[in-house]
């Protein structure tokens, strides 16, 4: 499973490797209501094979129609550089495209030819995302040349234009490690998959994994501290302890709280959480490390059932991922 950004990058890479040109469309600006955020992408081959989206479908239809008629390619060749198309600039066009009330999109169109340089660029970007590394696509808007930037070019915003250069930040797929094969973990896994997380469920206890299965989720009976140490020490990872068993949860937490994971949480009541915080120093954790633990986890929605608890957990994880430290 790949995130939407990775799917698009992989799509472009594969077609370039097969000597096919690809259109890449990127949202630069939005005004009013917009179904897709700045930095969202869509890729399309010259024969209309499409992946990703830049609207609810209306702009895509208009794009494909102009592609079939040859207008886009003619316009692109006349300028010999990336072009910006404004959708919804007038009320009449908003009505024609059925854009949301007041909505307007500025979209950068790039025609990517299967050159050696472009193949190398998209291979580098694809590899970086596979390694869960931050990367960015740097586009010279005056000539269309693309280069790759690493952490030193990362931006807080998804997309920034400085003079004639566009910095487009691309994020690797987020990962969640769930501890404890139970009903809550099943619902958390299903919601997380829908939110484009790569999900792994770990439970080293004998027989606990025998009847636990969610399609698309990798399961492991390895020791959780080993898994955390090997694969979850990065800001695109989250670790969620759901076992209600200190032998499993604490083993993972003693490593997780030392990592760069964007979220580490443990399920339990206020009393259970307080007892856990008293135990964790015995595992070699400092007060500052323990203070980063989310426990009890989830936002308060008076949840009682496993499905409701899972919703509250994923709501908190989503909020933290987007920079809200408290709810």
Key terms:
alpha/beta; 327 residues; elongated; 2 domains; Rossmann fold
End-to-end separation:
30 Å
* CATH domain fold name of the largest domain: Rossmann fold
| Mean pLDDT score | 88
Q: Count helical runs.
A: 11
- Overall structural domain count: 2
What is the succession of H and E elements? HEEEHHEHEHEEEEEHEEHEHEHHH
Number of strands: 14
- Strands of the widest sheet, in order across it, are 3-2-1-5-4
The class by helix and strand makeup works out as alpha/beta
The largest pleated sheet is described as: 5 strands, antiparallel
CATH homologous superfamily caption of the largest domain: NAD(P)-binding Rossmann-like Domain
**What's the architecture of the largest domain, going by CATH?**
3-Layer(aba) Sandwich
Helix content: 25-40%
